Amino acid sequence: MSVPDDLSAGTLAFVESPVQLLNVLEWAHDRAHDRARDRAHDGAHHRPYDDGVPAQRTSGSDVRRAPLEPPDMVIVVLAPHDPMTRGQLRRMAELARDQGHRLRWEEARGGVGAPLRTVGALAGPLRAAHRVVIGDPFSRYVQLLLSLARPRSLVVVDDGTATMEFVAQLARGERFVRWHRPCGGRGARDVAFAPVSASARRMLTPNDHRSVQLFTSMPVEPPPGVTVTVNGFAWTRAAFGPPRLTRSTDLVGTSLVETGVVEGERYLEAVGALAAAHGATRYFAHRRESADKLRRIAGRLGLEVVRPELPLELVARRGPIGRTVLSFPSTVVHTLPLALAGTEVSVAVCDIDPSWLTEHASPRAQGFLSRVTGSARHARRLPQMSAPARTT
Fold first, then answer.
1. Positions of the region Disordered (predicted)?
2. Can you give 281-316 as a three-state secondary structure string?
3. Are 58 and 93 in contact, with CB atoms under 8 Å apart?
4. Could you give the CA distance from residue 185 to residue 387 in angstroms, rounded to a whole number?
5. CA–CA separation, 358 vs 356, rounded Å?
């Protein structure tokens, strides 16, 4: 993948997942829209843009070019190891380039010396950038890079429901810990990295010299001084769809088993019960779901397993998609209704029964998952499912 040699830009954005890259594109679209409105207000000549009337489709893709000037930005992809995530990121990178954005693909985890080379290459541009955009404030890699930056503006775009926990921890002045991690002891690596994490927390606290903005589709209560801009998925809706709707019901998978929150067998039983109750025929796999679990979903439950090449918001918007989409508590119960606004698709969410949790699940897990479900303003909440009986 070709990359720009020149990293100099007013804005540097760092992404590690396809969803983060999608939300950087949404943020850039929102910024460009604001600049276009400002030029119109000042009487400058420009071509008006209406989200409802996008420009012509580009050849060879479903993306319609929006006549909006991209910001002075370089998007740096800190490539992960996971093959599914890498594949989706490469597809998202193609879409970003189609929209006129500059990207640099960094094999940031590709060997013993890779982190040192990556940090060395980014240190100068980081110090020069006046704005830094990040997608995962919990990432140690991102926290390390923030310690080298001196931006006047810091923007956090959504990394899914983790944004809700990040904002809550920032408001309470707590150290950043992912919601599904046990909140007990701290390992040696946590202790060693504590000064960097504390520095990142200070960077994410606004002051007289630095503004902090949150670009999100999640329901959050930000701490004082943090500006919130709502992500309504305007670029996604302008660039794709409207989708063709099928008569069937689709089910969205989660990685709750892989993160150690939900027991594998209980999850399979819950998926089977939910599919049977609502006539679901397709299962959209999360990029982190294990191949073994997906084989069991296809073989035992008879669902067609779909491995999306792009974030589900784009896949659903391109279609075909079921008229009803079922999900356990996850990001999509907040984002899909926005991405599919104006269509007849209904999104429904099923709570996680406490008895499905593993014995190693964080004490915060049940409360967090309930908050994800309860705060989904545009998703229909399904009646609580009875806990599937354990098999012996």
1. 36-66
2. EEEECCCCCCHHHHHHHHHHHCCEEECCCCCHHHHH
3. no
4. 31
5. 7
Nearest by Cα to 63 from 98, 18, 105, 32: 98
Q: Dig out the tokens for 163 from the structure.
A: 């944004």
- 3-state SS record for the chain: CCCCCCCCCCEEEEECCHHHHHHHHHHHHHHHHHHHHHHHHCCCCCCCCECCECCCECCCCCCECCCCCCCCEEEEEECCCCHHHHHHHHHHHHHHHHCCCEEEEECCCCCCCHHHHHHHHHHHHHHHCCEEEECCCCCHHHHHHHCCCCCCEEEEECECEHHHHHHHHHHHCCCCCCCCCCCCCCCHHHHHHHHHHHHHHHHCCCECCEEEEEEECCCCCCCCCEEEEECCCHHHHHHCCCCCEEEEEEEECCCCCCCCCECHHHHHHHHHHHHHHHCEEEEECCCCCCHHHHHHHHHHHCCEEECCCCCHHHHHHHCCEEEEEEECCCCHHHHHHHHCCCCCCEEEECCCCHHHECCCCCCCHHHHHHHHHHCCCCCEECCCCCCCCCCC
Per-residue confidence at 383, pLDDT binned at 50, 70, 90?
A: confident
Q: What count of other Cβ atoms lies within 10 Å of the Cβ of residue 222?
A: 17
Q: Give buried/exposed letters for 112-135 (b at 16+ CB in 10 A, else e).
A: eeebeebbeebeebbeebebbbbb
| Cis preceding linkage at 320, omega within 30 | yes
Residue given tokens 């979903």 in the structure block: 297
- The structural domains of the chain, with segments of one domain joined by +, span 11-232, 240-381
Is pLDDT of 375 > 80? yes
Cα separation, 313 vs 58, in Å, equals 20
CB-CB contact of 129 with 101 (8 Å): no
In the block, residue with structure tokens 């984002």: 335
Maximum separation of any 2 CA atoms in the chain, in Å: 73
Architecture of domain 240-381: 3-Layer(aba) Sandwich (3.40)
Q: Are 257 and 368 in contact (CB under 8 A)?
A: no
What tokens does 339 get?
């991405």
pLDDT in tens, 125-177: 999 999 999 999 999 999 999 999 999 999 999 988 889 889 989 998 888 88
